[in-house]
Specification:
heterodimer; A: about 150 residues; alpha+beta; DNA polymerase, domain 1; 6 helices; about 15% strand; B: about 325 residues; elongated
């Protein structure tokens, strides 16, 4: 066992992990942070997407020890009831979530995009979402919501 | 060389099951303050039936939408529902909800009639009030009536609804039958670009027009159409579909084996909602679930034919099939 120290959504944690433990297992099973979802566990669907030091990663294929000393942001740290992030408000407004399983990952992918490129084109939004699968929406309203949130930021 | 083409597909689709037993029940309970519990076991899988059914109850009862709570979380103790499938919930559970709301409203009307010195048949409900038809100044608040009914008259204001269509079998003599509760209609136009060197097909645009009867919630209808269009692009170009009857083993186990469309594969989608109300759905609604995934693939195949002059008659249209078809054409 190894001791992993990390910050999640601004709070410091110290947990014991195996060499093979993934970041997703740490978040969900050790810390009870269940916004990142267990989807494919092969890095294809993006339902587990989180930010590590501001960079978008798939928590299911990220070895936990590689985030030692780093900061993780999950959807729980993006906003809260009463203080939602503009992206969350835009997703709500535009009906960008149907079953909702992909939504936490979509929001994190969108945040990573807008942090880097605050005024993306529609095609740039689609490219930024290309590692996150959605079966319900056809992506149309998700892209609409991100474009609207980008407009609001300006 | 890149070649472009346009294709059209049309379709029709029934709502619910025609073999009989396709049943949904609803209970509407008006609470002492005039707020409403709509009790169901119809399950919301993200299509938004909690929203649509609350709208139907609110419209029928004449209360604001935000006064209706949908309680659908216990399929064991709640009223019966056969489930969320067959594009049936808005239509079947919606009819049950409307009937339940109407019965609850009649209880309120019978009490309000005395207060308003009018016959219950002459009353209407809207905006949280019950009023005399043609004389809206003669009105009472639904909350006040519900409170008096509950604590003054010791009534329980509950309405029940149960929609189950009679099964239809063909008449042996004439063959005549009435199999469908209602039919929704689709027309989808696809524009594609085919790379004749690689066989790759890109869908550039999908225009999706659907007759959904009355669109109870147009935003949710758009969500269904766009989601179905995305699935249709997958069925057309990427996904090897297998029958799901036993004992076929689904050979693909990961998204590496079974590729579905990403945001980059689904083109811009233009949605047209055409409202030709049904005669038997709640406020004229029809079903708009499954059918949205059906028309895109034939439209895309027709567009490929328009672009390169070959018909591909087996889905998905992979680059290999396109190149072989072009080779065979010579």
């Amino acid at each position: 066992m190894y001791t992993l120290e990390l910050k999640v959504n601004g709070r410091a944690y110290k947990v014991e992990v195996k060499a093979t433990t993934t970041l997703l297992q740490v978040l969900r099973e050790k810390l009870g942070i269940t916004g990142p979802k267990v989807g494919c566990e092969t890095g294809d669907c993006g339902a587990c997407s989180v930010l590590v030091n501001g960079k978008l990663v798939k928590a299911c294929i990220t070895n936990a020890l590689t985030v030692h000393g780093k900061e993780v942001l999950t959807v729980e740290g993006l906003g809260r009831p009463g203080a939602f992030h503009p992206l969350q408000l835009a997703f709500h407004e535009h009906y960008a979530a149907q079953c909702g399983f992909c939504t936490p990952g979509m929001l994190m992918a969108a945040k990573a995009l807008l942090d880097e490129n605050p005024k993306p084109t529609r095609d740039e939004v689609k490219e930024a979402l290309s590692g996150n699968l959605c079966r319900c929406t056809g992506y149309v309203k998700i892209v609409d919501a991100i474009m609207a949130a980008a407009g609001e930021k300006a | 060389m890149k070649k472009r083409g346009v294709g059209l597909a049309v379709g029709l689709y029934p709502t619910g099951m025609s073999g009989g037993g396709d049943s949904s029940q609803a209970v509407v309970k008006v609470k002492p303050d005039g707020s409403v519990d709509l009790i169901l076991t119809s399950v919301d899988i993200g299509q938004g039936c909690k929203t649509v059914l609350a709208q139907i109850a609110a419209e029928e009862l004449g209360v604001p939408y935000d006064r209706v709570d949908v309680v659908n979380d216990d399929t064991d103790t709640g009223p019966l529902c056969f489930g969320t499938f067959a594009s049936r919930v808005t239509f079947v559970a919606g009819n049950a909800t409307k009937e339940a709301a109407r019965e609850a409203k009649q209880i309120l009307f019978s009490i309000a009639a005395d207060k308003l010195e009018a016959s219950p048949e002459d009353l209407e409900a809207a905006n949280g009030k019950i009023y005399v038809k043609g004389a809206p100044e003669r009105s009472v608040d639904i909350g006040a009536i519900a409170g008096e009914a509950t604590f003054g008259l010791r009534k329980v204001i509950v309405g029940r609804g149960h929609y189950m269509r009679t099964p239809s079998a063909p008449d042996p003599a004439t063959g005549k039958t009435d199999p469908f509760a209602t039919l929704a209609w689709a027309a989808v136009q696809a524009e594609v670009e085919v790379d004749t060197d690689t066989g790759e097909v890109t869908v550039l645009r999908l225009d999706c027009a659907y007759d959904v009867g009355r669109a109870v919630n147009p935003l949710l209808v758009e969500g269904q159409i766009e989601g179905g269009a995305g699935m249709g692009v997958g069925a057309a170009l990427m996904e090897q579909l297998y029958p799901y009857k036993s004992p076929v083993k689904f050979p693909a186990e990961t998204f590496g084996d079974y590729v579905i469309p990403t945001a980059m594969d689904v083109p811009d989608i233009r949605t047209v909602i055409y409202e030709c109300p049904s005669t038997n759905g709640p406020f004229g609604a029809k079903g708009i679930g499954e059918m949205t995934a059906n028309a895109p693939a034939p439209a895309i195949v027709a567009a490929i034919h328009d672009a390169i002059g070959v018909w591909i008659d087996e889905l998905p249209v992979t680059p290999e099939k396109v190149l072989r078809a072009l080779q065979a054409k010579g």
